[in-house]
Design goal:
The complex is a heterodimer of chains A (537) and B (516).
Chain A: H1 7-24, H2 30-54, E1 65-74, E2 86-96, H3 101-118, H4 126-145, H5 149-170, H6 175-203, E3 206-208, E4 213-217, H7 220-228, H8 238-244, H9 250-267, H10 275-283, H11 286-311, H12 313-318, H13 320-340, H14 344-365, H15 368-399, H16 410-413, H17 415-428, H18 435-448, H19 452-477, H20 493-511, H21 514-520, H22 525-536
Parallel strand pairs in A: 2-4
Antiparallel strand pairs in A: 1-2, 3-4
Helix pairs in contact in A: 1-2, 1-4, 2-3, 2-4, 3-4, 3-11, 3-15, 3-20, 4-5, 4-11, 5-6, 6-9, 6-10, 9-11, 10-14, 11-14, 11-15, 13-14, 13-19, 14-15, 14-18, 14-19, 15-17, 15-18, 15-20, 17-19, 17-20, 18-19, 18-20
Chain B: H1 16-34, H2 42-72, E1 78-81, E2 86-89, H3 90-110, H4 122-127, H5 129-141, H6 145-163, H7 170-201, H8 206-219, H9 221-238, H10 246-254, H11 257-286, H12 292-317, H13 322-343, H14 354-381, H15 392-395, H16 397-411, H17 417-431, H18 435-461, H19 474-492, H20 495-504, H21 507-511
Antiparallel strand pairs in B: 1-2
The chains are: A mainly alpha (537), B mainly alpha (516).
C-alpha cells in the first residue's frame, strides 16, 4: 500500500505541512497546537518505522529513491566552440535512503517525537514554537535523505534559522548570545561546505546528457560515478574541456576535502570548534537540546561519512592518524573537563564532546566495523543524550537549578526519575548491556587493527566517563536533600512516557545490536572495496 | 560613419517608453504647479505610477517584437538608432523592465506613507522619479559615450534634488550637499576618463572605440590605463564601492526612505548597466585573453568587489541606525553585483549576464520590501534606530515574518532569491578558478548573518516601547507581501525566469556592438 506513495518526501515534508497548519490555528489554543505538532511528528515516525520494517539491506535501499529534476538552469553557451546545443546547471530533487541514513532517520523520528512530548515545559508563544520546531524537523529529515549536494546544503541551512529562534526565544538567561554564536559558527561551517560543493559540482559534476548537451550536476550519484570512473572525461573535446575547466586537480581535491572536514567538524564538533555547542547545551531549552545533542550533531557525522569518506577515501586514508588524534583529543578533553564541571548541563555537554570523539575514531579506522561503530555510537549517543536532557528538563521544572552543589537526595522525592537518570548515566559510561557499550566497542575495535596505541589512549576516556557520570548522578540522587525539594512530585505520565521509551530503546540496542548492524551490512562494502583497489593498484 | 543617421517617425515606436516618461514628467510638473495646494499630492503619485506602468508596457511590447524578429532572422534582435548612439536590445530592455518595475513598487509603497510634514514638496518627490528613471533607461540603452553620460547626469542631478526633498530636515540638506559634491566629482572622473578614450580611439561611439582599441593599445597604452582607471574610480563612487563609499551612509540616512530605496536599487543598477556596456565592448571584446591591461582591470574590479563586500559588511556590524545599516549592506551587495562583471573579464565562462540580472532582481525585491517595512516602522517609532524594531513580532507578527524572509534573503540564506543569486555568482568564481573572491563572498556572507540577525533579534526577542498594533498603510503592506513572495518564488522556482532571460538574451547581439 505504501509502496506507491512518495514515502521519503512525506517523511521530509509532513512536518512542514504541520508547521503551516500550526500557523493557521488560533494562537491561544495551546492544546490544539500541541496536538497538531505531535501528529505531524508522528507521521514521519510511523513512516520511518515502516521503512525500517520493509528495508532490505541487500538492495541497499534502492527501492526507496525519489528522483526528479528540480532546477535545470540554462547557462550561456556562446562562450564555447563547437556544436554545443545546451549547457545546464542542474540540481535534482533526489531523496534516497540506505544503510547509513536509515539508522539516523530512525533516530531522528524517535528523538523528535520524544522532544515534542517534552515540549510541555514551553510556557510562551506556543504557535511560533511549534511551527519552528516542525520546520526544523523538515530540515533534519531533508539532510539525512537528500542526495543532491545543493538540496543537502539547503536542508542543512534550513535547520539554522529555526534553531536560532528556538534557542534565542525560549532559552535561558544567555540565550541570545548562544543563538548568535550558534548561527555564526554553523554559518562558517556551511560556507566551507558550499565552497567545497561548488568546486565538486564544477568539476566532478560535469556530465554529458548526449553528444551536444552537457550539464553541471549536483547529483551525488553522478559525482560518485564520475569519481570512480577515470575514463569519464576521455571522450570530451579537449578544446572545450579547457574552457569548462572541469578537471579536478589534486590540489582542488585536497582543498575540497579539507573544507568538508572543517564544515562537518564544526557540526560534530571537533576540538577546537566546540565552544558554540557548550553554549547551546546550557542555554537552549531542554526539549531543543534533545534535538540538538541527539540529532543535529549527528548531521556532522553523517556528512563526514557521506561526503568525506565516500568521495575522498584516499585523502581520508592518508589523514586517518590525524583524524584519530583529533578523536582522542576530543575524548580526553571532553572527559577530563566533564569531571570538574559544577553545572550538570555542562557535564553533559563535555560528555557529548567526549562521545563524539569516539565516533571520530570509528571513522578514522576506515574499517567496516569501525564505520558501523561510528554510526552505532551516533545513534546510541543520540538516544542517551536525548534521555539525559529530557530528565534535565523535568528536573529544572521542579528544582529551578541544575547546579550540582544545589541538588542532592532527589532519589527520595523522585525515585522514578532518579532511576531513569541512573540508567541513562550507566548507558553513557558504556556499561555492557546498554547501547553505549556496543557503539564504543565497535569503534575501538575498528581502530585497534591499525592504531593500537591511540586506541589504548582513547579507551582511557571510558575510565573518566565512569568518574564524571557517577560523580554527578550520585550527587543529584543521593546525599542530603535540600528542604525545599521535599514536597516535589515525581514524573507525570506525559514526562514518564518518553523517558521509558528512550530507556527501553537504549536497553534494546544494548542487548540486540544486530537491529542496526544488519541495516548497515552492505553500506560500506562498496567504498572500502574501492579504496582497497585504488590503494593496491 | 560619414553621415549621421537621423531620427524618423517610425523610430518613435522604439523610443515609446522614454517618450512616455518625458511626457508624463512635463505633464506632472505643470499639474503640480497649477493644482490648488489643498488637493492632496497623492494624485501626482498615482499618475507617476501610471506613467511608469505605461512605459513598462511599451518595454514589454518591444521585448516581444524584438523576440519575434529574432526568430524570423537570427541576425536581428536588436535595433540601433542614430548611428548606434541609442540601442534597443534585450540587454537594455531587461534592465529597463527592472528599473521601471522597481520604481513603480517604490512609488506605490510610498503612497500612504510620505507625509507633508516631512516632505513638504510631496508632488516633487513623485514626479522627479520619472526623469531619474529616464536617465537610468538611457544609461542602459545607449551605445555612445556622450549619450551614456547624458543619461548618467540626468539620473544624478534628479537624485540630488530627490535627496533634498525633506526640506525641514538638516540631515536631508546635508545629505544632498554631500551627494552633489561627491556625485559631481565622480561624474567628472568618468567624463575625464571618457575623454582619454575618445582621444586615443577617435570616437565616442562604443563600436568605433572598440574598433580603434588595438591600435590605441599599441600607441597609447599609458593613456588607456589612465582612461580606464579614471572611469573605474568614478563608477566606484557612483556604485558606493569601498573605499569610495563614504557618502552612502549619510546620503541614505538623510534622504526620504523611498528615495533611499531608489538610490539603492535603480541608481546602482543603472551604473552597472553603463559599466557593462562600456567595459564589455572595450576591455573584453578588444583585448586578447592574456593581455596585461585586461588582467589589471580584472584585478582592480575584483579587488574593489572584495573590498566593498568586506567594508560594507564589517561596517554594518556596528550600525545602530537601520537606514545606515541598509546603506552599508548596499555597499556589500554592490560588491557582489560587481563580481560577475569582473569575472567576465577573465576567461569566458558559462554565464555572463544572467547571474548579474538575477541577483539584481532578487536584490531589488528584498531591498524594496525591507525599505517598505522600514518606512512603516519608522513612522511609528519616530526614528530610524534599531530599537524601533524591538518587539515588532508582538505588534505585527506577519510583518515581522515577512521582514525575516527579506532579511534572510539579504543574508543569503535559503530558500530565497538572495541565496540562489549568491550561489550563481559563487559558481562563477569557482568556474573561473577565482577562488579567493568566492571565499571573500562566503566569509562576508557569514559575517552578514550577525548584521541581519541583530535586526531579527530585535523583532522577535526584545520587547519594544510601543505595545499598540503597528499602523500599516495598505499600499506599503501590499508591496511588502509582493516582495516577500517574489523573494521566495525566486528562491524556489528560478528556472522560468532564467530560461526566459537565456532565450531572449544573447551576448553577441545584445551586449556586444559588432557593427555601428
Amino acid at each position: 500500500m505504501l509502496e506507491n506513495l512518495p514515502v521519503l518526501s512525506l517523511i521530509a515534508f509532513a512536518p512542514l505541512i504541520g508547521a503551516i497548519i500550526v500557523l493557521l490555528l488560533p494562537g491561544a489554543r495551546s492544546s490544539w497546537l500541541r496536538a497538531t505538532a505531535i501528529i505531524f511528528t508522528l507521521i514521519p515516525l510511523v513512516l520511518s518505522l515502516w521503512l525500517f520494517a520493509a528495508y532490505q539491506p541487500a538492495q541497499g535501499g534502492g527501492a526507496y529513491t525519489e528522483h526528479s529534476t528540480w532546477l535545470a538552469i540554462p547557462l550561456n553557451i556562446e562562450a564555447f566552440r563547437g556544436g554545443i546545443t545546451s549547457l545546464q546547471l542542474g540540481f535534482d530533487y533526489h531523496l534516497a535512503v540506505d544503510g547509513i541514513s536509515m539508522p539516523l532517520l530512525l533516530l531522528t523520528s524517535i528523538v523528535s517525537t520524544m522532544s515534542v512530548l517534552a515540549s510541555v515545559h514551553i510556557r510562551k508563544r506556543w504557535k511560533t514554537y511549534y511551527s519552528l520546531f516542525l520546520l526544523l524537523l523538515t530540515g533534519i529529515y531533508g539532510v539525512f535523505l537528500a542526495r543532491d549536494l545543493i538540496l543537502f546544503f539547503i536542508f542543512f541551512e534550513i535547520t539554522l534559522i529555526p534553531m536560532f529562534f528556538l534557542i534565542g526565544i525560549w532559552g535561558y538567561y544567555g540565550r541570545e548570545k548562544a543563538a548568535t554564536r550558534f548561527l555564526l559558527y554553523n554559518g562558517l561551517g556551511s560556507a566551507a561546505m558550499l565552497m567545497s560543493f561548488l568546486v565538486l559540482i564544477a568539476t566532478l559534476g560535469f556530465s554529458m546528457v548526449d553528444e551536444t548537451s552537457y550539464m553541471f550536476s549536483g547529483n551525488y550519484d553522478v559525482l560518485l560515478s564520475n569519481l570512480t570512473d577515470p575514463n569519464v572525461m576521455a571522450n570530451m573535446d579537449t578544446e572545450n574541456a579547457r574552457y569548462f575547466g572541469i578537471f579536478l586537480t589534486d590540489n582542488a581535491r585536497w582543498a575540497a576535502f579539507i573544507l568538508l572536514l572543517v564544515a562537518f567538524g564544526i557540526k560534530v564538533p571537533i576540538f577546537p570548534f566546540h565552544t558554540w555547542m557548550l553554549k547551546v547545551h546550557t542555554e537552549a531549552p531542554p526539549a531543543i537540546v534533545m534535538i540538538h545533542s541527539g540529532i543535529l550533531l549527528k548531521m556532522g557525522v553523517y556528512g563526514l561519512i557521506r561526503f568525506a569518506v565516500f568521495l575522498f577515501p584516499e585523502q581520508l586514508h592518508s589523514w586517518t592518524t590525524a583524524l584519530a588524534v583529533l578523536g582522542v583529543i576530543n575524548i580526553l578533553y571532553g572527559a577530563i573537563l566533564a569531571c570538574v564541571q559544577r553545572e550538570f548541563k555542562l557535564v553533559l555537554a563535555y560528555s557529548s564532546i567526549s562521545h563524539m570523539g569516539i565516533v571520530l575514531l570509528g571513522i578514522a579506522s576506515l574499517e567496516e566495523v569501525g564505520l558501523q561503530g561510528a554510526i552505532y555510537q551516533s545513534v546510541s549517543h543520540g538516544l542517551i543524550s536525548a534521555l539525559l536532557f529530557l530528565i534535565v528538563g523535568s528536573l529544572y521544572e521542579r528544582t529551578n537549578t541544575t547546579q550540582l552543589n544545589e541538588l542532592g537526595g532527589l532519589a527520595k522525592a523522585m525515585p522514578f526519575m532518579s532511576g531513569i537518570l541512573l540508567v541513562a548515566g550507566l548507558a553513557s559510561l558504556g556499561l555492557p548491556g546498554l547501547s553505549g557499550f556496543v557503539g564504543e566497542f565497535l569503534s575501538f575495535l575498528g581502530l585497534f587493527g591499525s592504531m593500537k596505541i591511540l586506541t589504548a589512549i582513547g579507551v582511557l576516556g571510558i575510565l573518566f566517563a565512569a568518574i564524571y557520570v557517577l560523580r554527578s548522578i550520585l550527587n543529584i540522587t543521593y546525599g542530603q536533600m535540600p528542604e525545599q525539594f521535599s514536597g516535589m512530585k515525581d514524573a507525570r505520565f506525559i514526562e514518564a512516557l518518553p523517558m521509558v521509551t528512550l530507556a527501553a530503546l537504549i536497553v534494546l540496542l544494548g542487548v540486540y545490536p544486530s537491529i542496526l548492524t544488519d541495516l548497515m551490512q552492505n553500506g560500506f562494502a562498496g567504498v572500502l572495496e574501492q579504496l582497497q583497489t585504488r590503494m593496491g593498484g | 560613419m560619414d553621415h549621421l543617421q537621423t531620427l524618423t517617425w517610425s523610430d518613435t515606436w522604439y523610443l515609446a517608453p522614454e517618450i512616455v516618461l518625458s511626457a508624463f514628467t512635463i505633464l506632472l510638473i505643470l499639474l503640480d504647479l497649477f493644482l490648488p495646494s489643498k488637493v492632496n499630492r497623492n494624485v501626482i503619485g498615482w499618475l507617476t505610477l501610471a506613467g511608469l506602468i505605461i512605459a513598462s508596457v511599451f518595454v514589454v511590447l518591444l521585448l516581444l517584437s524584438l523576440g519575434s524578429e529574432a526568430e524570423a532572422d537570427s541576425a536581428a534582435g536588436s535595433y540601433s538608432l542614430l548611428s548606434g548612439s541609442y540601442r534597443i536590445d534585450d540587454f537594455g530592455n531587461l534592465l529597463k523592465l527592472v528599473f521601471l518595475g522597481a520604481s513603480a513598487f517604490i512609488v506605490f509603497s510610498s503612497l500612504g506613507t510620505v507625509r507633508e510634514e516631512d516632505v513638504p514638496v510631496k508632488g516633487e518627490l513623485y514626479y522627479l522619479i520619472l526623469p531619474a528613471v529616464l536617465g537610468a533607461m538611457v544609461m542602459s540603452s545607449s551605445g555612445d559615450l556622450i549619450t551614456l553620460f547624458v543619461g548618467l547626469e540626468l539620473l544624478s542631478i534628479t537624485s540630488y534634488v530627490l535627496v533634498a526633498t525633506r526640506k525641514r530636515s538638516r540631515l536631508s540638506s546635508e545629505a544632498a550637499f554631500k551627494y552633489v559634491v561627491t556625485g559631481g566629482v565622480a561624474s567628472a572622473f568618468i567624463l575625464y576618463g571618457m575623454s582619454f578614450l575618445y582621444g586615443v580611439t577617435g570616437g565616442t561611439n562604443v563600436f568605433v572605440i572598440s574598433q580603434g582599441m588595438s591600435a590605441a593599445l599599441e600607441n597609447y597604452e599609458a593613456l588607456l590605463y589612465i582612461s580606464f582607471f579614471l572611469m573605474i574610480a568614478g563608477f566606484a563612487v557612483k556604485l558606493a564601492l569601498a573605499p569610495f563609499h563614504a557618502w552612502a551612509a549619510d546620503v541614505y540616512q538623510g534622504a526620504p526612505t523611498p528615495v533611499t530605496a531608489f538610490l539603492a536599487v535603480i541608481a546602482k543598477g543603472a551604473a552597472f548597466a553603463m559599466l557593462y556596456r562600456i567595459f564589455m565592448n572595450t576591455v573584453f571584446l578588444a583585448f586578447d585573453s592574456d593581455n596585461t591591461m585586461k588582467n589589471d582591470i580584472f584585478l582592480a574590479l575584483s579587488v574593489l568587489a572584495a573590498a566593498a563586500m568586506i567594508v560594507g559588511t564589517v561596517g554594518a556590524l556596528q550600525q545602530r541606525n537601520v537606514k545606515r545599516l541598509l546603506a552599508l549592506s548596499g555597499v556589500a551587495n554592490a560588491g557582489i553585483l560587481l563580481t560577475p562583471l569582473a569575472l567576465s573579464l577573465t576567461e569566458m565562462h558559462a554565464s555572463l549576464y544572467s547571474e548579474f540580472l538575477y541577483f539584481l532582481l532578487a536584490y531589488a525585491f528584498m531591498n524594496i520590501g525591507a525599505f517598505s517595512v522600514l518606512t512603516i516602522v519608522t513612522r511609528d517609532s519616530g526614528n530610524e534606530a534599531l530599537s524601533g524594531f524591538a518587539g515588532l513580532y508582538h505588534r505585527a507578527p506577519w510583518t515581522a515574518a515577512a521582514m525575516t524572509v527579506l532579511l534572510c534573503s539579504l543574508a543569503g540564506l535559503p530558500v530565497t532569491g538572495g541565496f540562489l543569486g549568491k550561489l550563481f555568482i559563487l559558481f562563477g568564481t569557482v568556474q573561473t578558478h577565482t577562488y579567493w573572491l568566492g571565499a571573500v563572498l562566503l566569509l562576508t556572507t557569514v559575517i552578514s548573518y550577525a548584521v541581519y540577525f541583530t535586526l531579527i533579534r530585535q523583532m522577535f526577542m526584545r520587547s519594544g516601547a510601543i505595545d499598540s498594533g503597528l499602523l500599516l498603510s495598505i499600499p506599503a503592506a501590499i508591496t511588502i507581501w509582493i516582495c516577500t513572495i517574489a523573494t521566495l518564488v525566486l528562491g524556489l522556482m528560478p528556472v522560468p525566469i532564467l530560461e526566459w532571460i537565456n532565450d531572449i538574451f544573447s551576448v553577441s547581439t545584445d551586449l556586444f556592438m559588432l557593427q555601428g
